[in-house]
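Example with several molecule types.
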Amino acid sequence: NAGVTQTPKFRILKIGQSMTLQCAQDMNHNYMYWYRQDPGMGLKLIYYSVGAGITDKGEVPNGYNVSRSTTEDFPLRLELAAPSQTSVYFCASSLPGQGTEAFFGQGTRLTVV
Amino acid sequence: GENVEQHPSTLSVQEGDSAVIKCTYSDSASNYFPWYKQELGKGPQLIIDIRSNVGEKKDQRIAVTLNKTAKHFSLHITETQPEDSAVYFCAATKEKGGKLIFGQGTELSVKP
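Resulting structure tokens for the full complex:
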């Protein structure tokens, strides 16, 4: 199994550009998450989804959008990139219910210049 | 919503010593508390977890304790080794709801 796959691994964007960070999992997990990780700030939840067709805001959703048309895919969209969105982005997935492990992708390092 | 505070942000210990990382949470409805380890350039990986009906759980050199009344939980690593050096995150969530909220992370350095 591939687990959670994120693409791309690295990206440099200019201010105002848009892009989509891809995330796919092959474990048939219902729950999927997007986090951003800034130095010394831990992992902040951007958006999450408890199943296909259902998405909800996390702690820091502004400037981002998500969709969940299938169980496998959970893309994160940046519409107008800003320097404040420079970060490392992690996608994760898990089964529903108490005490289930979240599996993380390898991360996407995004720089906005 | 849930808020998780984690301390310390950095921790340096000598090989063989113990390391303790502490977290507090705000939502009394949270009932699952995992700990993740993140090595350089990788995504976090689960190392141990505890549920709210248990006060302590141990797995070899790693243990976690939970105090529901005080809403805090801790990670204990004994006989630390250089390969324990990493960033550790605590997290909290409810059984149903989906949100998994993390603390700020602790960078542990084990000096040989």
